[in-house]
Amino acid sequence: MTLSTFRYEFRRRYGVKFKNCILFRNGELYNLDTEESIRFKNLDAALDYEIEGKTIRKFIDEMSMEDLKLTLDGGRGASGELEQSTFKFQDAASIPNGKNDKRDLNSRANTQIKEKSVAAALNIFRKMHLDPEREHAFSVDENGYVHNYVHGDAHSVAIMGGRGEMIFHNHPSGGTFSKSDMLSTSLSAEKGIVASCVSGDHIFIKTHKFRANEFVKAVNRAKMQGLNYDDAVGKWLTANQKKYGYHYEFKKAD
Prior knowledge:
Number of helices: 9
Distance between the termini: 45 Å
Strand order of the largest sheet: 9-11-10-13-14-15-17
Helix content: 25-40%
């Protein structure tokens, strides 16, 4: 990817992930493993910084648009417990890069959405893709029009939407958002994400007050109490909406 292309993509996102580090738009470089931050004046000042022996400039040079897609993971699912336990945000499995995902014709979805709205598009997504075998995804604008339609594998799917679009994807094994879901959505230009399963839809929407840097750090270090993973994540996301500037809800299936 050319540096000029990356600059454009970087400006319209909250940040970009390089290996175990995230470079936020304000010049903060955050290490997910050590939880330490380094601050740069701007992107140019960060280009020669090395991560695992490779400069950020080199990462950008080797990058493609595929690497900037949202990588969404199937989550962990709600394993039951008899009493309160502590959980961290987790992913279901090692996550592929999405390069084997298959694009589909947007028209296959759009022709089925008779009432053009986000709610109607989500209803059609549920009818088409509560699939127990693999993940699928739509990117949908505010008028309910599908701009991207992708089929993933059993554990993940990668998709890129436009600024302000919602991303719908299914979790074959059920369950709420994974760590990958939260981090990818936090850094992206998209408005939010839905994880659909048989029991209903987990919905996360960023507001104009969304605090990406702080939210990413909170997700990375969160220790959540609940009866199971879904319960713990739901309680944590509900409790922290105002603090980090987002809306969360679980909408039960009809």
